[in-house]
Description:
It contains two helices and ten strands; from the N terminus they run E-E-E-H-E-H-E-E-E-E-E-E. The N and C termini lie close together (about 10 Å). It has a single domain, classed as Phosphoenolpyruvate Carboxykinase, domain 3 (Alpha-Beta Complex), CATH 3.90.228.10. Mean pLDDT is about 85; it is low at about 5-10. The protein has a four-stranded mixed β-sheet with strand order 2-3-5-9. It is globular, with a radius of gyration of 16 Å. With about 160 residues, the protein is mainly β.
Amino acid sequence: xxxQQSYSWxxxxxxxxxxxxxxxxxxxxxxxxxxxxxxxxxxxATAILSEGFRQSANGMLGRGVYLSRDMKKAxxxxxxxxxxxxxxxxxxxxxxxxxxxxxQGHPCQKNWHDRRYxxxxxxxxxxPNCGRTMSGMEEDCVWDPNRITIVKxxxxxxxxxxxx
Length: 164
């Protein structure tokens, strides 16, 4: 019988620099710097560490870099990838001008960064439990990858003697 190794995604304790905030469930404050997380494969994490982030071609909020202030959410990505092949990049980001995309069919859902449609936003935010994300967890999309500073790469720790 095959048993898969169990992993822990506990984040190392760290001291936040002055002016940087951690998770909250409210809309990010415009101009505030936050700690966020990006879940990816270990291979992609290595590329991002050396080359920086690139916008995804598309997604729920259109083009951009998808992040979350929730480590638990980021640690689930990419979906259908074993924990042993995942990494989470902890980043700091000044969200700039942020907009809440808090319901299905929001008029700015995919054009929040395009001045042809009105006010331009740097970050789009989906609040937890708004019906926009399957996980029910918050999600952020940042238009400009240059706003993102990588702090560290987090990998899961195998739990000793425990197999599921």
